[in-house]
Amino acid sequence: METIRRGDAGESVRDVQSRLSALGHVVDPAELEKHRFGESTERAVRAFQQDRGLLVDGLVGKNTWEELVEAGYALGDRALYLRSPYFRGDDVRSLQIHLNSLGFDPGREDGILGEQTARATQEFQRNVGLRPDGIVGATTLDALGRLKSSVPGPGRTEIRETETLRAADSLSGHRVAIDPGHGPEEPGCTGAAGLVEADVTWDLAELLAAELRSRGAEPLLLRSREEDPSVSERASRANAAGADVLVALHFNDHPDPAAEGSSTYYFGRQESYSLAGRALADLVQEELVARTGLKDGRTHPKAFPILRESTMPAVQLEPCFLTNPKEEQLLGEDRFRRELAAAVAQALERYFAGRLLTPGGSGGVAGPGAPRS
């Protein structure tokens, strides 16, 4: 779809404004009357993007538009069942929250009705004496409504991920999906000295793959140098390969060339996040900052498509700003890139070996009141 932005006008803008208003975001009546994408519409888009864990840029591109559509569904608006393509929406996420609280494991509360959510639905139906057809219609919704508040405490998914974090293991033998961000058709940002994001992510991915092989892991690159698959295709490749974790590689950009530092993202939004993803993100960020001296931009929950659509713990790291001349110069050095790769590999070593993390510390496993993954 064509990106809708400030200065645009017409039916597409009216549709965006209507959806934002229905979700409680305030748009200036003068802009509504003329279907004009002005200051207040942009402000509402940014607030929506912030709420949903999206890139906050004030533009309505493919991801923001799809989230606007999904946000309009409430549980009961439509019958839900396993299909291809999967149902997506806030109604699916509500279903996942209910199932989780009742002790059934639908996987991450990501608003995607995949096979795990379908299995959890069937298991719930069997337990309440309904036909286990996986269809969430009036009868199943009625049963959920009667039971949803009867079981206090953490959900089944949170318990499973917490137990996973407590397990001691080794990086050796684990499959790590590596996604070199962007590609030849959509190369990402370019630094003042000419470094292109897609090229740097590919070089870093190759270095990380070599580092992981040397430690006994099985790296899986989600694209070739000549490819530029969609984010959904990349996630599908990782899911189909049964990867244990996913590491997406990107670099940041900003109009201010002084913007600097490293940040790492994990799946999360609206008071729900992946415990395992957060733990891995904290470890990656800690290693990157400690080994390189980069400014600590911390870890953040986001619903970037690669984090949302992958079924394993996933992180997206952006260790530098390509638009910062000093950091672009560092990225041009082979030694520095190797240090980045070693930092990520060491974080993965720590994640798999001795993953019992203490509350309140880096990557701490949250207590019973924590959001579910």
Would you give an account of this structure?
The chain has 373 residues and is α/β, with parallel strands linked by helices. Helices cover 44% and strands 10% of the residues. It is built from 14 helices and 7 strands. The chain has helices at residues 11-22, 29-34, 39-52, 62-71, 90-101, 115-127, 138-147, 156-166, 197-214, 231-240, 275-292, 305-309, 325-331, 334-352; strands at 175-180, 218-221, 245-249, 262-269, 272-273, 296-302, 314-318. Strands 1, 2, 3, 4, 5, 6 and 7 form a 7-stranded mixed sheet that branches. Helix 9 links the parallel strand 1 (175-180) and strand 2. Helix 9 crosses helix 14 and helix 11 packs antiparallel against helix 14. The longest helix is centred in the last third of the chain and has 19 residues, at 334-352. The chain starts with 10 loop residues before the first helix and ends in a 21-residue tail after the last helix. 45% of the residues are buried. Residues 356-373 have low confidence and may be disordered.
